[in-house]
Design brief:
The chain is of the alpha+beta class.
Length: 733
């Protein structure tokens, strides 16, 4: 066989089938393809940077609202790294557009350079994109696993489970990028290399060959359905997958964060002073014994061990509490309980300890903390052990407290014999306004308003318009025709003692602005709590305000101004957030900062309908006049009401400490009985103490809410007591 013959024949055939392309047409196609590719890369980078920017505030919000550990915030620098990497990469490797008249060879080289850089990015996507997130999220997972586990093995198992979920989320992302390189970018690169070789071939001036990718209608194969599906999957992972993982970790952290099972035999716990009332099998009963341990002994141990946190520990950490007492419970317990409506005592055996019960208690506690944050310090007792003499000026003492607890401003005064003997105001109007707060500033009282509502009620009792035992049925039947029968026998005294069973709070801003109409909605439903049992309730004072309005035909605000402010000379007092130019702004407190609230905007105070429970603002001078009235009343003197009415206002309910707008306790430094109350609308915090035997009153207030504000105000009260009581005025308890 003549091989040369066949070789010449193949060469002749090949020369006949050679494809020759118009260079100008190809240049247009290459430039079009290059522009489309640049647009795709720009869209990708814009999407990545945009998502990262959106995730930054979301990450902070989730961390703050869910109280996540510090490792959660490691993802913040990771998001910043991603944003910075993409922006710097675009700066270092600019996507240059084609210039008019640019040679085909130059366009091909530029396209090839840009394409090869994108191939490098996707092939190394693990190192610059995935690994930083893997490290930060893994640190959070490991931290959570360690905190929520009882042993190394348990922590390791939980961590591996969380890492497996992370791998399931990120592995497809890696392989999708490699798939794109293999099926789209690499074939495109090969065409560009072939075209480049054709253009640089010195043996021919023609451009030949086939370039289906470069000359196709699209720069890459993109299926709209696939893109839609991928987008839906991405959103689902972002909005469902990751938060679900975090939620699971958070819940575990809440219920397994110590070496004691988070279980309880009670579905709910509430308090009648120091006596626990518990819910078992859907029924509220008084706890007498638990495994033959007196409830009073458990409570006393919790008070001694955990001090101000004793109720919370009893409710949420019962297993730990009993274990520390040397009486660890088993999976079931025996309860001795007493009926709330009779003297009947029962023994409940084999009551299971369940996580569901404890979870319900914890959820109720969180809801209560959110809705009644302003009342956290109502039973706070100024520790005599901390009362010490202090010779520094009051302003310096307050400034030290303000700086320590990072408050915008704080004010306080001491009143003796009806005269303010010392007062000081330090700080600025807000965290964004460094205007100093002056002595003429107005301050919000929060729930200290309730003493004014009770006083106003006493005036109407003296006028014969109301009686202390007037019932809701007596006063509100016509105004509230749909009143539930469970409310009809609730008395005015019960409302003022917080024993009326009225719901503590509703969404006051969405309620009717008319107070009677608002109360009609509250009373149309059955009582939320058993009547006669103490449960702090803003709603109860709103109902009392409605009773006042019905019997007088006048608004509560109008009556308060006419019957309390004007007779006492409280000329600079009013309702709502203080708004004059001399006054500070309230602040919402979070983990990161205190946000000033413009007093002219909605949300800067409680809704107006909540007025009787907490919307009054005062100057220090004005509030001193009100405290003087109650101080003299507690000393048996007549004033804006009779001494007899003052005595009624200051007398607690039987077996309790809460009177009508005042908490009544015995304190050594007060020489006996003391009256106290704290108030907050979550943006201010105020506390007043009266020591009638010493003819002395103390008051402190700050324009911020939250736990730090509560502690700071009580520190200020302690400082005031230390400055104005002699050593023999403060015997040890």
């Amino acid at each position: 066989m003549d091989s040369d013959k066949y070789q010449h024949a193949w060469q002749a055939y090949a020369s006949q089938t050679r494809v020759t392309i118009d260079p100008d047409a190809l240049l247009k196609e290459v430039q079009r393809s290059q522009g489309s590719f640049r647009a795709t890369i720009l869209l990708r980078d814009f999407r990545e940077v945009g998502v990262a920017l959106v995730m930054l505030p979301i990450w902070f919000y989730m961390g703050i609202t869910m109280s996540l550990p510090w490792t959660w915030y490691l993802t913040v620098p990771t998001l910043l790294w991603l944003i910075g990497f993409i922006l710097i990469d675009r700066k270092r490797h600019p996507q240059k557009p084609s210039e008019p008249g640019e040679p085909l060879l130059h366009s091909v080289k530029e396209s090839l350079t840009q394409l090869e850089h994108q191939i490098w990015l996707l092939r190394n996507v693990f190192w610059w994109y995935l690994l930083p997130f893997v490290i930060s999220i893994s640190a959070f997972f490991l931290h959570t696993a360690w905190k929520t586990s009882n042993s190394w093995w348990e922590a390791l198992g939980f961590a591996l489970f969380l890492e497996l979920i992370l791998a399931v989320l990120y592995t497809p992302i890696y392989y999708l990028n490699q798939y794109a390189v293999r099926t789209q970018l690499e074939p495109r690169r090969q065409e560009l290399l072939a075209l480049l070789a054709s253009l640089t071939d010195e043996t021919t001036s023609e451009v030949s060959g086939e370039y289906p990718i470069l000359t196709s209608a699209e720069c890459a194969e993109v299926s709209p359905r696939r893109m839609l599906f991928a987008g839906v999957c991405f959103v689902a992972i972002l909005l469902i997958g990751v938060p679900s993982i975090i939620y699971v970790a958070y819940r575990v952290d809440q219920y397994l964060d110590q070496d004691y099972p988070k279980v309880s035999p009670f579905a709910a716990v509430r308090w009648d002073e120091a006596q626990p009332e518990v819910k078992v099998d859907g029924e509220w009963v008084r706890l007498v014994l638990l495994n033959n341990i007196p409830a009073s002994k458990i409570v006393a141990y919790s008070q001694e061990t955990y001090e101000d946190m004793w109720q919370k520990r009893f409710e949420e950490d019962l297993v730990e509490l009993l274990t520390r007492m040397g009486r660890p419970p088993q999976d079931t317990v025996t309860l001795t309980v007493q009926s709330l409506t009779s003297a009947e005592v029962r023994i409940l055996r084999d009551v299971p300890m369940t996580t569901a019960n404890r979870r319900a208690i914890r959820d109720a506690a969180q809801a209560r903390e959110r809705s009644e944050q302003q009342h956290q310090a109502l039973h706070h007792a100024v520790p005599i052990e901390e009362v010490r003499s202090n010779a520094e000026p009051l302003a310096e003492a307050l400034e030290s407290i303000r700086a320590t607890y990072k408050l915008p401003a704080i004010a306080a005064f001491v009143m003796r014999g009806g005269e303010v003997v010392e007062r000081a105001t330090v700080g600025t109007r807000s965290t964004k306004d460094d205007t100093p707060v002056t002595s003429s500033a107005q301050w919000h009282l929060g729930s200290n308003t309730q003493a004014m509502t009770a006083t106003l009620t006493g005036m109407l009792v003296e006028e014969g318009l109301l009686q202390w035992d007037s019932t809701l049925g007596d006063i509100l039947s016509e105004a509230v025709p749909d009143m539930d029968a469970g409310h009809r026998d609730t008395t005015l005294t019960m409302l003022l003692h917080h024993t009326g069973g009225i719901t503590p709070n509703i969404n006051w801003y969405s309620a009717p602005e008319d107070r009677v109409a608002c109360v009609a909605g509250i009373l149309s439903s059955a009582p939320k709590r058993d009547r006669g049992s103490y449960a702090y309730s803003n709603g109860g004072y709103v109902v009392a305000g409605a009773m006042i309005e019905v019997v007088t035909g006048r608004r509560w605000e109008e009556l308060t101004r006419k019957k309390i402010f004007e007779p006492l000379g409280m000329t600079d007092s009013g309702f709502g957030a203080p708004s004059n130019t001399n006054s500070p702004w309230g602040h919402r407190s979070s983990v990161l900062r205190k946000t000033p609230m413009d007093p002219t905007t909605r949300g800067s105070d409680n809704a107006p309908v909540l007025g009787p429970a907490g919307t009054v603002h005062v100057t220090l001078e004005d509030y001193a006049r009100f405290l003087t009235a109650h101080m003299e009343g507690a000393q048996g003197k007549d004033g804006i009401v009779s001494a007899e009415t003052f005595a009624t206002l200051h007398t607690p309910r039987p077996g309790g400490k809460y009177a009508k707008g005042w908490i009544v306790v015995s304190r050594g430094w007060a020489g006996g009985q003391a009256l106290s109350h704290s108030g907050s609308n979550t943006m201010w915090y105020a506390t007043a103490w009266l020591a009638p035997e010493k003819n002395t009153a103390f008051f402190a207030v700050t324009n911020a809410g939250g736990d730090k504000a509560s502690v700071a105000v009580n520190k200020a009260i302690e400082a005031l007591i230390s400055r104005h009581l002699q050593p023999d005025d403060a015997p040890s308890r």
